[in-house]
């Protein structure tokens, strides 16, 4: 085992009462059976929140500062006292307290629509050790059969403060997909109709090793599998995903404030709703406009389909106030792939 600070543990991780491991976690740092120091995401009992451990100090500080900055920008927009805005420190390095213009604050506040809601930080004891967690909206909340895909965005996944070693490691992973598409696939889970037992579904999960084995055609196939493209109602799903991706792209086109390295888009949808829609037999156009005759179905697609930006451990102020071309290249590739699937 390569990592330091490892301790043998034999049982499941010891987590506080009322919490459990996030069962829909598809990528990122996870609990490890043989390393008590490794901590993954937690969820609470039915409250619709997830708890992300802060991880490596520099990454944790940057992610926490990012969410706090967004919260401060929202508060300022809502008319809270100006000092909140002056505390913005997106760099996570020493200093902080840099001032931000009204435009910057408004941009940050607009970004909040595209990231999970933030509910502050808290300390929890896991495996007899205290860890700091950030409390976030669970993007799969309310989904009976959540399909979740983590797509890491950008050709470059190392940040400006990375060591030469870290840069080398990052450049050697997911090479084909990263270089050609500016995307990589660290993990996903999808429910699919069970071909052996009609009416039943099976859960398929793929992790980083699968993602690392993909070439461009394989990446396209993985997305087609994730979006259940053979399902009758998949065009509703693809249209809504496209709509949310374009909205994120519109934000990135406007901003010259931040550069997102090694950040992901988390795409979540409920397979149960997709199936019910397919069985409902109504035209896709009607459904994507938010109307459905069955009152048991959510009225709008964005209630069971969510695309959000996550993982801000490597977010940095934009160099020379440049747009985030690295992120936008990957995001555009993803949009192109989804458009191609829709028009197949
Ligand atoms: N708000 C959320 N709601 C639901 N699931 C989430 C949320 N945030 C993260 N996850 C789950 O946890 C996984 C890991 O999240 P994230 O990328 O933030 O962690 P990380 O450990 O920083 O990852 P990395 O190793 O790439 O740095 C995601 O792939 C997703 O499955
Ligand atoms: O895709 P993989 O192969 O899972 O690689 C991991 C991924 O690049 C994470 O973003 C990174 O965490 P950070 O973002 O926190 O650097 C982690 O570094 P780590 O092993 O040093 O934690 C890598 O192992």
From TrEMBL:
Q: Name one GO molecular function term.
A: inositol-1,4,5-trisphosphate 3-kinase activity
Q: Example GO biological process term?
A: inositol phosphate biosynthetic process
The Enzyme Commission number assigned here is 2.7.-.-
Q: Which InterPro entries match?
A: IPK (IPR005522), IPK_sf (IPR038286)
Could you confirm whether the keyword ATP-binding appears in this record? yes
Class of the enzyme per the UniProt entry, highest EC level: transferase
Q: One Pfam family, short name please?
A: IPK
| Keywords recorded for this protein, A-Z | ATP-binding, Kinase, Nucleotide-binding, Transferase
**Reactions that this protein is recorded to catalyse:** 1D-myo-inositol 1,4,5-trisphosphate + 2 ATP = 1D-myo-inositol 1,3,4,5,6-pentakisphosphate + 2 ADP + 2 H(+); 1D-myo-inositol 1,3,4,6-tetrakisphosphate + ATP = 1D-myo-inositol 1,3,4,5,6-pentakisphosphate + ADP + H(+)
Q: Does the keyword Hydrolase apply?
A: no
Q: Name one GO cellular component term.
A: cytoplasm
Family stated for the protein in its record: Belongs to the inositol phosphokinase (IPK) family.
Q: What is this protein called?
A: Kinase
Source species, please?
Answer: Drosophila virilis (Fruit fly)
Gene expressing this chain: Dvir\GJ19687
């Amino acid at each position: 085992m390569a990592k330091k600070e490892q301790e043998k543990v034999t049982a499941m991780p010891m987590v506080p009462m009322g919490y459990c491991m996030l069962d829909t976690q598809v990528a990122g740092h996870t609990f490890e059976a043989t390393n008590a120091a490794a901590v993954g995401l937690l969820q609470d009992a039915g409250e619709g929140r997830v708890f992300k451990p802060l991880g490596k100090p520099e990454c944790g500080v940057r992610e926490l500062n990012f969410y706090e900055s967004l919260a401060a920008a929202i508060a300022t927009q809502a008319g809270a006292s100006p000092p909140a805005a002056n505390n913005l420190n997106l760099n996570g390095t020493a200093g902080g307290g840099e001032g931000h213009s009204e435009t910057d604050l408004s941009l940050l506040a607009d970004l909040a629509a595209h990231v999970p809601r933030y509910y502050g930080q808290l300390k929890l004891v896991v495996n007899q050790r205290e860890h700091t967690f950030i409390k976030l909206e669970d993007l799969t909340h309310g989904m009976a059969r959540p399909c979740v895909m983590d797509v890491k965005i950008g050709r470059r996944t190392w940040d400006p403060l990375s060591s030469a070693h870290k840069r080398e490691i990052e450049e050697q992973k997911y090479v084909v997909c990263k270089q050609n598409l500016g995307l990589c696939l660290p993990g996903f889970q999808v429910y699919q109709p069970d071909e052996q037992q009609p009416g039943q579904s099976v859960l398929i999960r793929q992790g980083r090793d699968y993602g690392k084995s993909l070439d461009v055609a394989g990446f396209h196939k993985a997305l087609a599998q994730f979006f259940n493209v053979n399902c009758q109602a998949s065009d509703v799903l693809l249209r809504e995903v496209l709509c949310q991706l374009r909205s994120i792209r519109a934000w990135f086109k406007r901003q010259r404030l931040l550069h997102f390295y090694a950040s992901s888009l988390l795409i979540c949808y409920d397979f149960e709703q997709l199936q019910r829609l397919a069985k409902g037999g109504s035209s896709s156009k009607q459904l994507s406009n938010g109307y459905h005759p069955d009152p048991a179905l959510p009225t709008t697609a964005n209630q069971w389909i969510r695309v959000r930006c996550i993982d801000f451990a490597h977010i940095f102020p934009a160099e020379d106030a440049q747009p985030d071309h690295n992120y936008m290249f990957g995001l555009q590739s993803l949009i192109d792939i989804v458009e191609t699937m829709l028009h197949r």
